[in-house]
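Priority: medium. Attachment 1 of 2:
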């Protein structure tokens, strides 16, 4: 099972996500679409968006880079073999696996896992306090501060 997450670096809010049985460009692209839709729905301007990802082929695919350009996002790709470059996204992946998969048991099929991930992300965004945001929930951190920030950075991880 493969997962792609789009996370706001400032608020730690998961903006978009997608699951698939295979690693392909559509997986990352659909997570990006959800992330940009979430931002636009909230009335946020995406023209100053910086999109950071690792150097996976799904993030360097023509369709993916074209979509970033349509959203007027600046692409930032991490350097190879730099374990700190995508540390926040890696930490979220580990946390999700520990709190959702290991603690709550295995799931039967992708449909069951999608429901569990949706519930986990809702809990993570709306109820889990984050030390990095002075113990605010990601949604509260975003509402309190992001509207005053000129640049919003999303980090993608598969």
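Attachment 2 of 2:
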């Amino acid at each position: 099972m493969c997962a792609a997450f789009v996370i706001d670096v400032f608020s730690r809010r998961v903006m978009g996500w997608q699951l698939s049985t295979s690693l392909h460009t559509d997986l990352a692209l659909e997570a990006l679409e959800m992330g940009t839709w979430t931002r636009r729905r909230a009335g946020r301007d995406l023209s100053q968006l910086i999109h950071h990802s690792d150097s996976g082929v799904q993030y360097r695919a023509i369709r993916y880079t074209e979509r970033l350009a349509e959203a007027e996002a600046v692409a930032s790709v991490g350097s190879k073999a730099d374990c700190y470059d995508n540390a926040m996204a890696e930490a979220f992946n580990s946390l999700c696996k520990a709190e959702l998969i290991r603690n709550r048991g295995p799931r039967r099929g992708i449909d069951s896992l999608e429901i569990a991930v949706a519930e986990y992300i809702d809990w993570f965004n709306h109820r889990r306090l984050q030390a990095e945001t002075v113990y605010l929930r990601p949604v509260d951190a975003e509402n309190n501060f992001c509207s005053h920030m000129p640049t919003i950075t999303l980090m993608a991880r598969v």
